[in-house]
Structures are given as structure tokens and as C-alpha cells.
Design brief:
It is a single chain. The chain has helices spanning about 10-20, 40-55, 70-80. By secondary structure, it is mainly alpha-helical. The two termini are about 20 Å apart. The chain has one domain: ACP-like (Non-ribosomal Peptide Synthetase Peptidyl Carrier Protein, Chain A, Orthogonal Bundle). It contains three helices and no strands. The longest helix has 15 residues, at about 40-55. The chain is about 45% helix and about 0% strand.
Length: about 90
């Protein structure tokens, strides 16, 4: 079974696709925040919606300054590691 863990690279791709993040702004720093890569609260809301639609992930706080990019990745990764069909 292939590894389907959500990574920081996956988040950067999603942000490029949904929020227009340029490739040059991509980061590998898990401690970076939205402001560090030039994104605002509107981009954060777009990301929240997409993460919910794709992965069923809820980010409980709407403030982009609340989360590091690493914390977002961990939240999504933990949601995607739940066994399918578990209720």
C-alpha cells in the first residue's frame, strides 16, 4: 500500500492551486506561518474549505496566525490516517 501521508509539499501544492501561491514562495520550514509566505486570511479560508472538502479536516480556529504550516500538515495527516469505514 503506498504511503499517502499528507506532507508540507502537498500543502504547498494545494496553496499554489487554490490560493495562487507562487512556486518561489514555497517553503520547507514547518515553523513558517501564512504571513511568512505572503498569504492572508482569505487564502487561509480557501485552504480550510479545500482541506475539509478533500480530507474532511477541520481547522478549529479561523486565524491564519494561529497555526504554523507544520501544525496544518499534522492536522491533515492525522485525519487521513484514520482507517476508512470507522464510525
Amino acid at each position: 500500500m503506498p504511503d499517502s501521508t499528507f506532507t508540507l509539499a502537498d500543502l504547498m501544492s494545494l496553496l499554489s492551486e487554490k490560493a495562487g501561491l507562487p512556486q518561489s514562495a514555497h517553503t520547507t520550514d514547518p515553523d513558517a506561518r501564512f504571513a511568512d509566505i505572503g498569504l492572508d486570511s482569505l487564502a487561509f479560508l480557501s485552504m480550510q474549505t479545500e482541506l475539509h472538502d478533500r480530507y474532511g479536516t477541520e481547522m478549529p480556529d479561523d486565524s491564519p496566525s494561529r497555526y504554523t504550516l507544520g501544525e496544518i500538515v499534522e492536522t491533515v495527516a492525522s485525519a487521513t490516517q484514520r482507517p476508512a469505514g470507522m464510525a
